Every structure is written in C-alpha cells, then in structure tokens.
Amino acid sequence: MGTGRARARALPLALALLLACSDVAAVAAQGTERIQGSAGDVLEDDPVGRLKVYVYELPPKYNKNIVGRDPRCLKHMFATEIFIHRFLVSSAVRTLNPEEADWFYTPVYTTCDLTPWGHPLTTKSPRMIRSAIQYISKHWPYWNRTEGADHFFVTPHDFGACFYFQEAKAIERGVLPVLRRATLVQTFGQKNHVCLKEGSITIPPYTPPQKMRTHLVPPETPRSIFVYFRGLFYDTSNDPEGGYYARGARASVWENFKNNPMFDISTDHPPTYYEDMQRSVFCLCPLGWAPWSPRLVEAVVFGCIPVIIADDIILPFADAIPWEEIGVFVAEDDVTKLDTILTSIPMEEILRKQRLLANPSMKQAMLFPQPAEPRDAFHQILNGLARKLPHGKGVFLKPGQKVLNWTEGAPEDLKPW
To answer: Which residues neighbour 333 within 8 Å (Cβ) at sequence distance 6 or greater?
Structure first.
C-alpha cells in the first residue's frame, strides 16, 4: 500500500514536470549549452596531423567478400568495423608508408556471419582474427616487432574480444590471447571486467545516421511523454527462465511499471519510434546481454535524457562526453524506484540536460556518417588513438623476444580459417 500511495503522490509532480518540459515556447527558447572545460575541448579536437595510420591490405575473404555475401551487415549495430575501414582508407590520417605509421589497422569483419534473424554469430571470429594476424606477420615486419602493441582492432561485439554474447561464457573465454597487446576499439565497456582490456577505446554502437536524420521533428515539438522505452524485457529464446537476461533489470522495469501512466513502455517497435523519442523527456537505456545499448545513441541524437541502467558501465568517449551531466544513472538494484528517482529531479536540472543534449557536437560524436563529417565518431576514435601517443619504450620487443602464447585459447579458436 505504501508504494501505491508514493506513486499516487509522484504522479501529479510528474505531470507538472511533463507540462513544463513540453511547453513549446520554453523549450524553443532554451537553445544549446556548450560543454565546458577540457571535455568540450577534447570533443572538438581535430585528429589530422596528430597521428598516422597504416591500413593493411588483406585478401578480400577477410572483409569485402563477407559483406558481399550478406549486405545486412551494413545495417546492424556492429557495422562500425566496416565503416571504420572505409573511413580510414580515404582519411587524411592514412599513410601508405608503414615506416612512418603510429598505428596499424587490420580490417577484419568478424560480425558479418549472421543468422536468418540477423544476429551475428561469433563462432568463427577468433579464427578469423588469428588467421589475419598470421597473414600480416608473414607479409610485414611490424606486428612481429611489437606483437601488436602498436596495432588496433575493432571488435564491436557484445563483450568485445571475448567473442560471445552471454556474459558467463564470455568471461570463461576471456579476451582472445593474441590480442592482449593490441588496442581494442569496442562497444563493450564495463569496469573491472575480464572482457575489458586496459587501454581499450569504448565507442558507440552503429545506428544509421541518414535514417535517423530523416525522422527529425521540429525542435519546438512538445515532449509529452515522460518515460519511454521499446525493446525486449525477456529474451525467452536465449534465457527461458527470464532471470539472466539484462541481469533481471529489464524484467523488473516491466513488472513494476507496465501499468504506470508515466511510463510508455512496450515490446512493440512502432514506425514512429524515432519521433516518439523526440517527444519524450526520459528514455530508458537498460543493459541487455551487455551493458551498452543502441538506445544510448538514439537518446543523445534525439535530445531525450538517457536513463542509464547498467552498473559499472564505461560509456563511449567518456573523456569527451560529460555523461554525468547529460544522463541519469540508476543502479540495477534501484529499478523498482525509477518513478521516484525521475520525478525527484529538479526542473532546472532537466532543462540543463536538455540544453547540453541540444549541442550539435554532442550528437555528432555519437554517429558514423558516410561520408565522414567533422567531429563525428570516426574522429573521436582517432582522437582517442592520438591521446595514446607516443608509444612507450616497452612497446618494442628485443630481437627474438616473445610475449604472446599462440597456442593458448579455446580448442576451436586454434583451428585454421
């Protein structure tokens, strides 16, 4: 009964907040707010002239042929590995002289083996990576002199270079041993997790920029939805009992708020999904199998305050984007208090978050447009790589020195590809 009375008291406050946030004149007059301090400077950095990248030319079986067999790879949330390759090939930071390169990039498309339902299979990914590394180490001397310490790989899977979508299995596998010296560019980021290698660069998942931009509504459109979410609450096909997926957080959202009038939540994915996010004050961004979610990108682009429910998450470009200022963090154990937490946020704080989210640089940093645009996510990745320079003396090995154990790993990973 106590919880019911608390919700009843919270509802008028939520409605008052909603009315204030949806006032057309007030929202239109807010404008944008520049990110202050070093974060804003980092966000607006230009990486050109600060690093040079050598792109290995691999046989097309590692990349182009894979996309040719299944073009769906160009649209799913892991497509960053394809578009980063395309971007680097024509980028001003690319060098054709490997002797002057700061970084070496090996373009392997490891998420393009899709099920009929469009879900990536990572069974072959470790074998592909190992095979590609064997190829570059045979044809160029640069891998061998550092065993990959000046190389970076894009591994945009649920749990990065652990190459598995279920956390327990990913932890059991660990980061692919041959990548332990390399820098990983990945969507996965969680503190103190075996699948997060120190020094990794956490990036946003891919969401189609052109498609999103065609769904923009006028900026003066009222935000008449208080809390919005569309997506799975239970993954019954992979987690029949319903307690493991999203560590139970999504199930808790549904069970506690499916009948709450402040919450517009459903498993349906309407054609007005993007427009609805632009009409919402808060957008839930709970973890799924992994901590991150494409909704994070969508919320930022559409100016909807992201409510991040993923304990210990490391967010994309965290040294450039002030996530604490633009988002709301809710602990997984506190999901049952979501209504109280959100209705207790002062109006001035909500308005400031909206002004920061309206900053074009913030939105740009979350997107991978083709062709690339200034300050977009491609450039933020290069900025991250540039900030890791110069390489320390420990990067280069002595003649004959070996660090990595090529025979280490799961038996299936050691098979040739």
So the answer is: none
CA distance 57 to 54: 9
- Residue 325, token pair as written in the block: 């200022």
Tell me the pLDDT tens digit for each residue of 98-137: 999 999 999 999 999 888 888 888 889 999 999 999 999 9
Could you count the other beta carbons within 10 Å of the beta carbon of residue 346? 9
16 DSSP assignment? H
Residues of 31-60 as b/e, b for ≥16 C-beta within 10 angstroms? eebebeeebbebbbbebeeebbbbbbebee
Q: Which amino acid is residue 5, in one-letter code?
A: R
CA-to-CA distance for 379 and 88, rounded, in angstroms?
A: 10
The pTM assigned to this predicted structure is 0.91
Nearest-angstrom CA–CA distance, 370 and 88: 12
**Residue 153, helix vs strand vs coil:** strand
Strand runs labelled E in 93-188: 103-105, 151-154, 183-186
Q: Amino acid identity of 181?
A: R
Burial (0-12, 13-18, 19+ Cβ within 10 Å), 140: middle
Angstrom distance (rounded) from CA 298 to CA 283 = 9
Q: How far apart are CA 375 and CA 364, in angstroms?
A: 6
Q: At what angle do helices 80-89 and 377-386 cross, to 10 degrees?
A: 70
> Which residues neighbour 17 within 8 Å (Cβ) at sequence distance 6 or greater?
226, 281, 343, 345, 347, 350
- How long, in residues, is the chain? 417
